[in-house]
Amino acid sequence: MLNYTLRRLGSLIPVLFGMSLIVFFIIRAxxxxxxxxxLGEKASExxxxxxxxxxxxxxxxxxxxxxxxxxxxxxDLGTSIRTSSEISGDIWPYLAATMELAFVAMLIAVFVxxxxxxxxxxxxxxxxxxxxxxxxxIGVSMPxxxxxxxxxxxxxxxxxxxxxxxxESIRDPVEPITHxxxxxTLINGNLxxxxxxxxxxxxxxxxxxxxxxxxxxxxxxxxxxxxxRSDYIRTARAKGxxxxxxxxxxxxxxxxxxxxxxxxxxxxxxxxxxxxxxTIFSWPGIGRYVYESIxxxxxxxxxxxxxxxxxxxxxxxxxxxLLYAAFDPRIKY
Amino acid sequence: xxxxxxxxxxxHTPVAIEEETPSIIKETWHSFKKxxxxxxxxxxxxxxxxxxxxxxxxxxEGINEQKNADRLLPPSSEYWLGTDDxxxxxxxxxxHGARLSLTVxxxxxxxxxxxxxxxxxxxxYYGRWLDTLISRMFDILLAFPSILLAIAIVAILxxxxxxxxxxxxxxxxxxxxxxxxxxxxxxxxxEYIQAALSVGMKDRRILTYHILPNSLAPxxxxxxxxxxxxxxxxxxxxxLGLGAQAPQPEWGRMLSDSRDYLQQAPWTVxxxxxxxxxxxxxxxxxxxxxxxxxxxxxxx
Lengths: 333, 300
Known about the structure:
- By secondary structure, chain A is an all-alpha fold.
- Chain A contains 13 helices and no strands.
- The longest helix of chain A has 38 residues.
- Chain B contains 11 helices and no strands.
- The radius of gyration of chain B is 23 Å and the shape is elongated.
């Protein structure tokens, strides 16, 4: 297992290297003079020249790349053009906001998706099965941003049940410690605030979790159907074991491997989808951070934001790969 | 795919394919039409294609025809889906939007399909360092969440519908590339390919007459499913202001333009979203049906 982990980590090196290369070229691929594009037509020649020097655009391209790579390896993500502050210092609160949202979305997706999939498989070809699968198909086809807007309209504007934007109550802001507000409010022992944060998480969490939920439900169903036809499940049922035990202990454990792959893949989609969800719900996460920087042509932030999200995606998939063994001892490395 | 049986060193093979080809199409259609969901999907897709093609003739109002007196009117017999904040007829704009969304979805997928197939065939057929290089490139591109990569590309090229199309085409290249590569790798071991090689058939002929026609099934299935995601991605870029620009009636753009009127006039947001969802659902159902009919092994 240790051997496999090391090999898997080793195979990440070329991927991470390639990713840094692509991100590096984002700014260099801008047609014309990137410094001029960033500052706009009205900027003075001196300002453009100074930015060009700051971004290191005057050096030969190979030198530029090695500088960039060197900075990345020492944890330097560059400086924001808009705020003139270090991106590595700014990025954590945004990242924490996205991680919290993605976690809740995944929690909803896995809980609802897996259970709907199990029930669909158990009651195969029943009304429930058909309804669940049609709902799942619609879920996969739904634009996240539209679902988010509809939720806002119905649950916030019409029914006034849940807050439509933001992470916290403006009147009672959370005192940040880790910037993961669910955790921070608990550390501060402020339960009222905790529930306010939970309320803020529901609508964006459901919007972001819908597509993975639908995909997980379909995957769980087909994977459960396969497992439930196997001899050992038939034996367990023939022994008269209770349905709950058969499903959740025997079947799910084995049906979970393909589901796990989907969960890993969906995490990437979730991080991408976060840009849309965060825009709609004014969620101060990394997606919004990147999106706003596009409007200000703040390319260093665009580069670093994208690199950070992609790196997380790569590591999530690594963890999923390593988790296989925990769920299925038949997998040998 | 009809294959001309010209003077070919392994001439018996193409003739055999030619005889079988119509039956493959028939067989596919036979199992496709038994799948009611797939037929429904094909129906939805055909309907939207037709609406898009005929938009100029059947839309009751012009694309950007503004009537100040008729701003934000709810659906009625005059304006079937209501009007937006400029007093434009939403139904007419959705019809024209069908043309835009389907065009972007189709051409983006054609682009990624051509590039992906080309790279996949080279990687799978020639192998060795070319395979390593191309496969690594795919790995790296797939390491980015796709919409994020599209945003990065548009950030470089500048926001427009055309650049959104290019971005969507690029991000889907590895999907096609990987499928084609895997297919080519398995085809390469087939006896008829080995036979063609042993009678001295040139690589180009083998690729054009044997490998490509036999890789078509997964490409068609993936293409159909990919149009669905491409339409969603185009709408997402439009929504973020990185794709279609106002006043283009692209569905995602229409949604974001109407966001501020969500409470006052929810229909301005509701209907463009339904249009996106139905079209995407149509392509998904059709793609699933085609997969079951053409390539049962691909079924999860």
